[in-house]
């Protein structure tokens, strides 16, 4: 790989051993990819948290939080002193909500260790946003900005909706990026890899957040990790719909970039979306039949109508969704046999407290949690067998992770299930 | 005893050999493997319940969460990493995952390893030279009998 003078100096140890280890890892990673060079980045979304008993033990045996960072964020067996980060770096979701550890079944020792770790990482300059949706709480890159992001649902939003550029990075590459301000120039950083590969024509109304989730889930199955170009959308979606759409497509397939013609920034026309690539002669069609079959596949594990748990907030709910939920729950009461947990970013939770939504949701018997979700934490209310969800992504993961039955539907349908205790198999 | 060879591009340098474990399914890291045992746990995966510890893992590529590299990194920490990795589809997940697993790895082959290698074959991976030597399981059992 070709290095600039500044990169060579980092590799030679000018900025100390941690930066040297970081640059060495970026070179090994870049060579593995077949990248020709690195690119500057000033925007990192990372997980550096240590929230498991294993990490606690690793830190105890190997030299504390710097040992955890050296090994799991820089791939260095040698424990090096970690300097403050060079790039703007924000944290992804965690393994639990430290403010609601007891509700999530996490012991005090683990919480204490996590707090120690968080003090270490915020001391390095990593923002404790703790969300899968950094673009909702202060990290909104501009079009063309080179980023190094983890979290597949955030990656697809970054590339597609914002027009910024990132690959799906991992814990070690973002650790190296935050100390060096570099990431391999490969994949979605290059113009030619952002062009469309498949054309999808939508033949039915796609309006609600549930509609967008179903379209995304079907699309991911069709194109896997390729770049779909979608036409036939009749009304412009909002943030929550595109957040759900991308999360669905990146869990059923591995979609990291899509184009909505006339809506997303690199697709003012079908021709622009495909660029020098050939526009396929025939589109794949998504109509009512595809929608119905996708819903049936998602609901394949649902057998019993009696609901134990309603989980909302995957990806983390927007402020607008919290407002909608408060309206749906105001003056109502959640069934005594049902728990309703809604997950959002900690910063959004603060706004909900300010705006009165927390009070409305809690008066109805619901709980607002932040920083995590049931799939990440593996935490559900005790005795949960049947779950209602308004997220296709969470419906994809939870039955596999916890062996529960899952029903997917609209937010309103989930609120009805929470209040009545039963899943109504209406048209979503 | 005759061996078949494949040539590929080095992803992670090094030399290793072992019994092949072949799957035509992509592998998920986070949520798809148990990092403490090196076992594939994904529901509906062809290798569900099978451990890749010490094996030459032959697979199409990576899928799923950005936790892929960390899940494979931990297999090295727990001593249950694959001996080597051979795969066809290059992505950031698998490149970083292979690097931090530190097992010799190759891609971009002159033939399809998924077609030429079967579970149980003995495979020697010389990633420094971009070379894979395959001894078929049938010949191995003949030689040992």
Q: What attributes does this structure have?
A:
heterodimer; A: alpha/beta; Aconitase, domain 3; 3 domains; 5-stranded parallel beta sheet; 4-stranded parallel beta sheet; globular; B: 145 residues; Glucose Oxidase, domain 1; 8-stranded mixed beta sheet; two-stranded parallel sheet; 4 helices
Topology:
The complex is a heterodimer of chains A (428) and B (145).
Chain A: H1 5-11, H2 17-33, E1 38-40, E2 43-46, H3 53-62, H4 65-74, E3 88-91, H5 108-123, E4 126-127, E5 148-149, H6 152-160, H7 171-180, E6 182-184, E7 198-202, H8 209-223, E8 228-231, H9 239-252, E9 259-260, H10 270-274, E10 284-286, H11 288-298, E11 309-317, H12 319-329, E12 339-344, H13 346-355, H14 357-363, E13 367-370, H15 374-377, E14 386-389, H16 392-402, E15 405-408, H17 411-420
Parallel strand pairs in A: 2-3, 2-5, 3-4, 7-8, 7-10, 8-9, 11-12, 11-14, 12-13, 14-15
Antiparallel strand pairs in A: 1-6
Helix pairs in contact in A: 2-7, 3-4, 4-7, 6-9, 8-9, 8-11, 9-16, 12-14
Chain B: E1 4-7, E2 9-12, E3 15-22, E4 27-28, E5 33-34, E6 39-40, E7 56-59, E8 62-63, H1 68-77, E9 84-87, H2 92-101, E10 105-107, H3 113-116, E11 122-126, E12 131-135, H4 137-144
Parallel strand pairs in B: 3-7, 4-8, 7-9, 9-10
Antiparallel strand pairs in B: 1-12, 2-10, 3-11, 5-6, 11-12
Helix pairs in contact in B: 1-2
Explained architecture:
The complex is a heterodimer of chains A (428) and B (145). By secondary structure, chain A is of the alpha/beta class. Chain A has three domains: 5-189, Aconitase, domain 3 (2-Layer Sandwich), CATH 3.30.499; 195-297, no CATH class; 299-420, 2-Layer Sandwich (Aconitase, domain 3). Chain A is 41% helix and 14% strand. Chain A has 17 helices and 15 strands. Chain A has a five-stranded parallel beta sheet, sandwiched between helices. Chain A is globular, with a radius of gyration of 22 Å. With 145 residues, chain B is of the alpha/beta class. Chain B has a single domain (4-144), classed as Glucose Oxidase, domain 1. Chain B is 22% helix and 31% strand. Chain B contains four helices and twelve strands. Chain B has helices spanning 68-77, 92-101, 113-116, 137-144; strands spanning 4-7, 9-12, 15-22, 27-28, 33-34, 39-40, 56-59, 62-63, 84-87, 105-107, 122-126, 131-135. In chain B, strands 1-12-11-3-7-9-10-2 form an eight-stranded mixed beta sheet. In chain B, strands 4-8 form a two-stranded parallel ribbon. Chain B has a two-stranded antiparallel ribbon with strand order 5-6. The A-B interface holds A 25, 28-29, 32-34, 47, 58, 71-72, 75, 150-152, 155, 167-173, 184, 186-187, 225, 251, 254, 375, 397, 399-401 and B 9, 11-12, 31, 42-43, 63-70, 73, 77, 90-93, 95-100, 105.
